[in-house]
Amino acid sequence: SLLGEGAYSAVYKVQRLADGETYALKKVKLPSLSDKEKQNALNEIRLLASVRHQNVISYKEAFFDDKTRCLCIVTECADGGDLLQQIQRCQKERTHIPEPDLWRYYIGMCNGLQALHRMRILHRDMKCANIFLSTSPRGLIAKLGDFNVSTVAKRGLCMTQTGTPYYASPEVWRDMPYDGKSDIWSLGCVLYEACALRPPFQAKDMEGLYRRVLRGAYPRIPPGYTQDLSDVLAEMIQVNPRHRPSADELLELPVVAKKAGEMRMLQHSDGASDLLRTIKVPRNAIDLSAYLPLPRYDGGAKRRVHS
């Protein structure tokens, strides 16, 4: 079944015949993509295949489907949908996400970002639609996904402007160099939206949004939430990136460390991974199979999935 659709790709919920398990299959239409976009698609596979962490959507395999001329990326399927869907459900039902759930999601997102940043990977498109929710013995946990515009920060700072405007940091809006602290701002915007059911910065047009983001003032979250949650938001949504904590520092904040301990979410380094080499696509490459990482299913079998 179709889970979502973009300009050049569609995501399906599929079942793998070899193990009967459910996965997500992203089909990227290659003939309609530019060389740069093809490189982005392969980059997403490389990043996914490099990171093994409980708070990052796990890579299973990638293959080229000759019939549809599509590059297919198979990942784990988050059975709880995404954070945006949960926010929309709350808007409809006029309820709010309970605070214990928010802390669980938040600590999971911090853990996931910490794993990426330790590998010098910037997510660059942190938003509620890219935070996937998965069942665990502790309840739903958050997993980072959709690395389509991620990049490896070779020199620590990047210049290109990508990402979603509502979540973009002041330095991205101003075309300044940026680093992992930009993801932290976006993480703050995601947590704020999960609390308030609306982004922290809204305006009628891009110019107005730009001004509001650069000013950095946002409305208080609903009064039903604690001061601790407000304080953590204030740490992340700071206009000066130097004043924002890193993912490591966020997890060391006393209130966050205390919550993580209570929820048994203290980090253990299962995300140790080596970054796979950049996948270079030769011009006019027809079959990309030879350039893709190997399948990574738990059972080790390599049979294809079917939608």
Automatic annotation (TrEMBL):
<comment type="similarity">
    <text>Belongs to the protein kinase superfamily. NEK Ser/Thr protein kinase family. NIMA subfamily.</text>
</comment>
<dbReference type="InterPro" id="IPR051131">
    <property type="entry name" value="NEK_Ser/Thr_kinase_NIMA"/>
</dbReference>
<dbReference type="Pfam" id="PF00069">
    <property type="entry name" value="Pkinase"/>
</dbReference>
<keyword id="KW-0547">Nucleotide-binding</keyword>
<feature type="domain" description="Protein kinase">
    <location>
        <begin position="1"/>
        <end position="256"/>
    </location>
</feature>
<feature type="binding site">
    <location>
        <position position="26"/>
    </location>
    <ligand>
        <name>ATP</name>
    </ligand>
</feature>
<dbReference type="InterPro" id="IPR017441">
    <property type="entry name" value="Protein_kinase_ATP_BS"/>
</dbReference>
<protein>
    <recommendedName>
        <fullName>non-specific serine/threonine protein kinase</fullName>
        <ecNumber>2.7.11.1</ecNumber>
    </recommendedName>
</protein>
<dbReference type="InterPro" id="IPR011009">
    <property type="entry name" value="Kinase-like_dom_sf"/>
</dbReference>
<dbReference type="GO" id="GO:0005524">
    <property type="term" value="F:ATP binding"/>
</dbReference>
<dbReference type="InterPro" id="IPR000719">
    <property type="entry name" value="Prot_kinase_dom"/>
</dbReference>
<keyword id="KW-0067">ATP-binding</keyword>
<dbReference type="InterPro" id="IPR008271">
    <property type="entry name" value="Ser/Thr_kinase_AS"/>
</dbReference>
<dbReference type="GO" id="GO:0004674">
    <property type="term" value="F:protein serine/threonine kinase activity"/>
</dbReference>
<keyword id="KW-0418">Kinase</keyword>
<keyword id="KW-0723">Serine/threonine-protein kinase</keyword>
<keyword id="KW-0808">Transferase</keyword>
